[in-house]
Amino acid sequence: MTRRAGGERPWRVRLRDPVTGLLFVLPMLVLFVVFRFLPLAGSVGMSFTDYRINGSWDPVGLDNYQRLLSDPVFLDSLQVTLIYAAIYVPLTVGVALGTALLLNTVVFATGLFRGVLFLPYVTSFVLAGVIWRWVYEFDGLINGLLAKVGFEPIGFLQESSLVLPSLAVVAAWRGFGYSMLILIAGLKSIPDSFLEAARVDGASTWQRFRFVVLPHLRPVLFFVLVIETIAAFQVFDTIYVMTGGGPVRASYSLVYALFDQGFEFFDFGYAATIGIALFVIILVISLIQRKLLDRETT
Amino acid sequence: MTGRRTRGQGALIALLAVISLLTVAPFLVMLVLALSPPGVQSIPDQLPDELTTDNITGVLSSHGMVRWTLNSAIYSVVSVVVILITATMAGYAFAKKRFPGRDALLWSFLATLMVPFQALLIPTFVLVSELDGVNTFWGLIVPTLANSQAVFLMRQFIRELPDELFDAAKVDGASEWWVFWRLVLPLTKPILATLGVFVFLWHWNDFLWPLVIAQSDKMRTLTVGLATLHGQNVTTAELMAAATVSVVPCLVVFWLLQRYLVNSITMSGLKG
């Protein structure tokens, strides 16, 4: 970075800056202090209390955290979220990478295809949930088609073993277009001469992908993995619309647990503690993935 | 070599076409169901013989759909306008002004990116309800305006504008306020359009915050309304009609600004 942030300017103009600079930041600063920094402090504070819906509270020390570590509801939600992420992330990144490679190779109507594949991303998870719930229903699209060829109906959202993959497919459908665009940008930055040289040397398509494309794409791929993993840990909307956390608690995710404890059981202190846990988990994932990336690139 | 490439193209295009069709299929299913006459079981058995807009006019005249759409529009449009102005102001100050604590402030804004909103849900709800903001527009809108991505994006863009532009105006005696409205905002128009689209979509599609803070039937946004419609006594056709109505603004925004949107993601890494 050669340019100094403030740049060079006549000193008499600069004199007025301290006040005007602060004044221009002030509206956003107030918003951040009141609705980001204060709630963050509040979240930590509330996790040491038994804050109730009527606003009364007593300090309870580490009780909420102890409860967290022994509460099957929380621990199960952690497991559900981990399994969901283990399905959602490879699925989404895989589809995004596949379509990005296709769009990067095909030379016909690329803009149209790209637009169509990106389309679900501009809609809401609620909409995706509403449509796909019907697609999965016993008299819905997939089971209707299965019945035509003589198969028994499948309980996509009713079977404990199927509910998380089914939910992951919905979120992947809604979200892969964004990662696809990022990966396309990454692919475009690979110099054509590299691929051409590999081709001249007789490298197969797979070898070109493995030894030229993939190493160049690694940082972008890591970025995509990080944002999709974080997205997976925040899954809520589709669950609320499609399963309500069920069957039993087979799709009861971390954020669903937070919402449920807060707004069904009104146990605000405990819900805030789940929020802290979510924050720490996402922070740790980002840091681990960053460390891995640093090691890869140095 | 080129011959081999073009020969492979046909198969790849076919594959891409199949994937694209699968991607739009859920939307087509939604649309056909929404336009099927009431009581007709169409997909997957058959396509309906005739199409009707009865379901769409039906849901629009009941279930508070118009009200929810209006609420979503107010939530999204007010947020877009306020975020664009305040983020540009902050971005301008961070990019072109010197004031004590500037860098620390910028980094503390950016650090909030690491905190998922869900982790702040409970205390933010308590705060807004203490201020009697439950089921009000300000309670719905104001907590969502602290947007660090917007500030950072504007700061990056404004940094690239030449200092001489602003200095020249000030030497000519222009006020800071004039510089902001007459120079900064017009110069940032391209990036404002992109950011505006994103902020609109984030708010139009937002669910968890409206769900907890706008609980009354009158204050519901479209996403919350759609989700609650689900449990009620509505037919699949009516539900899909409501879904169709909810997605129209997103599609309009998307088609109007597709180029902006797609290009900017690849440049800036904005995340919804």
Automatic annotation (TrEMBL), chain B:
Classification via Pfam families: BPD_transp_1
Cellular location of this protein? Cell membrane
Q: Name one GO cellular component term.
A: plasma membrane
Q: Which SUPFAM superfamilies match?
A: MetI-like
Record's keyword annotation contains Aminoacyl-tRNA synthetase: no
What is the membrane topology listed in the Swiss-Prot or TrEMBL record?
A: Multi-pass membrane protein
Which residue numbers delimit the ABC transmembrane type-1 domain?
69-257
Ribosomal protein among the record's keywords? no
Q: Which CDD domains match?
A: TM_PBP2 (cd06261)
Q: Alphabetically list the UniProt keywords.
A: Cell membrane, Membrane, Transmembrane, Transmembrane helix, Transport
Main localization (coarse): membrane
Q: Which PANTHER family match?
A: ABC TRANSPORTER PERMEASE PROTEIN MG189-RELATED, ABC TRANSPORTER PERMEASE PROTEIN MG189-RELATED-RELATED
Q: Which family does it belong to?
A: Belongs to the binding-protein-dependent transport system permease family.
Q: What is this protein called?
A: ABC transporter permease
**Organism of origin:** Actinophytocola xinjiangensis
